Amino acid sequence: MSQRLSGPMTVVEWSPNGVRVCDPTAGRTESFASVAEAASSISGKRVVLALSRRSCFVKAIRVPNVPKAEAQLALRYQIGQHLPLDPGEASFDLVMAGDPSGDGRLAVLYAVRTDTLKDAKRQIEDAGAKVATVTAACIGSACLQKEVGSDTYEVAEETPEGLAIDVCVGGVVQYTRLVPMTPELDLHDEVHRTCGIVARKPSGTVGAGGFDAPGLARSLPISGLKALAERNPDTVNIQIPEEVEARARKAVSTKARTAVLLFGAAAAAAFLVYSDYEMATSERATLTARAARQTRDDSTKNKTLSSDLAALKKKSAILDQAFDPAQPFSDVLIVVSEAAPAGLWLTGANMERGKPLTFRGTAISDQAVKAFLDGLAVTDRLRDVKLLFANNATIEETPVVNFSVQATLVGNVPMVEKEKKRSAATARVARN
Q1: What is the extent of the structural domain holding 423?
Q2: Do residues 173 and 233 lie in contact, with contact meaning Cβ atoms separated by under 8 Å?
Q3: Domains contained in the chain, number
Q4: CB 3.0–4.6 Å: which of 31, 55, 90, 370 could bond 85 by disulfide?
Q5: Mean pLDDT per 10-residue section of the chain, whose length is 432 residues
């Protein structure tokens, strides 16, 4: 049977002769002679009340194939057939432990005398704690499934009341038994005797809380009480019948008041809805006509705005082409200077915003001029690079080429001029 875990919570194992308190957050288990002595450990906390094995009855029974609530209702008047308790003096809970069959289904009954449960809860509340749920201490053995690696096994653990032997079948403790701790104790015989009560053979006995003895399959360091505190399964919650009935009556009363309030609210809402409907009907025609006019006006405005937007986009594209990217003249001079090869010198520049740029220079050969033009042509800072002229000259008997180059600066609107015919010198440099 799968368990739904509610998370760590302090557990108080109660018996008439003393209590044990397991605090999972502090990682310790303490024993006290009474609940009053344990007040410092539990005051201000919500705790799980775990009834000791001598205080709680555990028995596997057959119940009809009905929902759990119906089975509990029938068992309230028939509990004397299963336990030495009168119908009016028992508080109990059922765990449906088997699949339905033709003769009913298997269930495990966890019961306690109501007076005993009231006394235990009163003692804990007097100590400053609040009881969240009531369970049986033996349920801790069912919380060891992860360590055992199975949901069917037997657990032997030394407790203040004696050696506890719990039979866990399908994740549910079907029977628990206490055996005196004596030197003559034969664990093998006691386990078989306990399993025989529920008509089963041992499936593999483990020791809990560090208990070890011959015949055990293994010994686990974790105790059942600690496992119960750390995992806190919600499989069992034993409640006092009077408290259950009081909650049921309160729920019925709350539902009745809610129904009356809802009826009144529904009547008022119906009246308001009808009044609103009449008002809305009279306004509907006016709103419809107004909406139609507004739609026509909005459509006209939308067309006008769309036309204006298209014109603005064209202007924006022209401006982007003219001024993006913005280039300082100093950056342009650096780019042009870096493109000048060895044997070529720039002697002048003519730069004016919005007009093509002109650079003049002297080179020792036509090849140097061509290399300079090629370098300018590949940069993304300039476009429309062309040679205006290239004339041969002599400086102190050294042949040179005087040239002039024109280019358009990217991001500046060029001046559109009629292209002149290339000179013979330009053609000669281009061919080289």
Answers
A1: 329-431
A2: no
A3: 3
A4: 90
A5: 67 95 92 95 94 94 89 90 90 85 86 95 96 94 93 95 95 94 92 93 94 93 94 88 81 76 81 82 85 88 89 78 70 88 91 85 92 90 89 88 90 54 52 49
